[in-house]
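Quick question, first post here. What does this chain look like in 3D?
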Amino acid sequence: MNRTMQLALVLAAVAAGCEKSSSAPVGRSQIVLAWTQAGLKVGELKKSEGTAVGSDDCQAGTVEGLEITLCTYPTAKDAVLAEDKGLAWVGDATGASIAQGPSLLVVVDRAKSDPTGRTIDKLTKVFRGRK
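> Answer (accepted):
Ran it through. Tokens below.
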């Protein structure tokens, strides 16, 4: 088998593997871009103390008036393990804490600006890669 054919087979295998991967946004900038493209108004995200959710790599801000904290963890497992800490931070307010890959999104509606929950639903669906 010549080099060109070997390269073609390798590229085909890589492409097949990519098709099975999640379409969810991965990095913070990709998540913000996905929210913006979905028509959500994203405020400025600023470095945030993430001790409540066990991460030192967090940014906080607003999306459509909802408070959000977006954290990155070393592994996807670490992000999943932090979901309960995120829910504890939400407390009695309406909100969510969900992991997607190495990212954790905590969204809370303390101002009661989303009484139907539609904005939280849209925000979390885009975060997970579903629209």
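The radius of gyration is 18 Å.
The chain has a mean pLDDT of 81.
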